[in-house]
Structures are given as C-alpha cells and as structure tokens.
Specification:
Length: 214
C-alpha cells in the first residue's frame, strides 16, 4: 500500500480528470519489431488545452506477434504514465503553477508519483524570486519518498541564479541544506557551483551545462 501522502498527491490528477476535456488533442501509436523477435508498442496522447500528456509503453516477448492486453498475459510488460502541467493555478493558492507525473506498472505492482509546485515573484526590476516544492513517492516491494524545497533568486540582466534548497528522503528524513550559484557564461552555456550537506560531509561541485531548443 502506498503512504497516505500519495492520496494527497493524486488530488490534482483527480481534479483535472473531472474537468471537461476539449477537442484540441493529438495522439500517436508506434509499434516496433525488435531483432530478438519481441515487439514493443508506444501510445501517447496529448490534450494541449489542459496541458496533459498520457500514454503507455508496452512490450511482448517473441512468442506473440504483438502486445495485446488480455487477462493473465504474464509476458506482457509495460508502464502507463500521465503528466499534467498546471500552467496557471487559482490566485488564492500559494502556488502559481505546477506539474504532476504519475507512472504505474501493473505487473510489477509498482507506482510512482511526483509533483512540483512553484511561484515566481518579481522583487525589484531585474530580480525574480522563485519558491518551489517537490514531492516524490514510489510504491512497490519497497516504499520510498523524497521531498525538495528551494528558494531561488535570479538576476535577469546578468543571467545569475542563486539557490538555497533542502532535501529529505526516507533514508535521511532530516532536511539537509544546499547552496548553489548558476551563471550563464556564453549563449546557452552555464556554469554551476554547489555545496551540499549530505549529513556526514559536504559535497562541493562545479559543473558546466549546455541547453538549446530549436
């Protein structure tokens, strides 16, 4: 059984499912015959009006021509998933936007739920503050949970972001802090320095990243 926290995390999905679905949607089905004779199939559908993507990744061993869902199909493996993007929450809520990710593996009796909610406020001209809260819960043969909370300050003109975060898991339930600074140095290249408390020592790191969309 999943922890009580999971019920609260499923609430946004339930609320969204109860809302009327508009016709602005798209879907795709892809079937692949692998070299070993097994077959995999991916199905996804997106409802752009409400920022929802859901689908299934299925696989079938070489003993069958295609993955077909039937009662007792023990050789059928797969995962069902859904991602909900809440781009604009009601003004009376603390959070401004959020995402909910759910994945289920019926055969393995496992499931994962992750939520992220955030709000960005302009403190002054060129200075934005973002508060974010993330929860992750996994259920199966073993249960696991993780929570992250962060406060970020972004200097828009210089492309610099300072972040203070805390993290806790089922193994280390005490909130452990971390500090980081990210600087955009050239185009889409960024450099991040971070110091994180692991509970027994301090981890220090310097990383570089490149992100580009086209």
């Amino acid at each position: 059984m999943m922890p009580r926290t999971t019920a609260a995390l499923f609430l946004p999905v339930v609320l969204l499912a109860a809302a009327p679905v508009r016709a602005d949607s798209s879907s795709e089905v892809k079937k692949t015959l692998n070299a070993d004779g097994s077959v995999s199939m991916t199905y996804w559908s997106a409802v752009e009006d409400i920022g929802t993507v859901f689908g299934m990744d299925l696989s079938k061993s070489a003993t069958s021509a295609a993955p077909v869902i039937t009662s007792g199909a023990s050789d059928l493996g797969g995962t069902a998933y859904a991602k909900v993007t809440l781009s604009q929450l009601p003004d009376w809520l603390l959070w401004q936007k959020g995402t909910v990710n759910v994945s289920l593996d019926p055969n393995g009796a496992t499931g994962k739920v992750a939520t992220t909610f955030s709000r960005t406020v302009t403190l002054a001209s060129g200075l934005d503050a973002t508060l974010a809260d993330t929860y992750r819960v996994a259920s199966g043969t073993t249960e696991a949970w993780e929570t992250d909370k962060s406060l970020s300050l972004k200097l828009v003109e210089t492309g610099t972001t300072f972040s203070l975060a805390t993290k806790a898991t089922q193994e280390t339930p005490t909130l452990l802090p971390s500090l980081s600074a990210q600087q955009k140095v050239l185009g889409d290249i960024t450099v991040t320095t971070a110091v994180a408390d692991t509970g027994s020592t301090l981890n220090r790191s310097i990383t570089a990243g490149f992100t580009h969309r086209w």
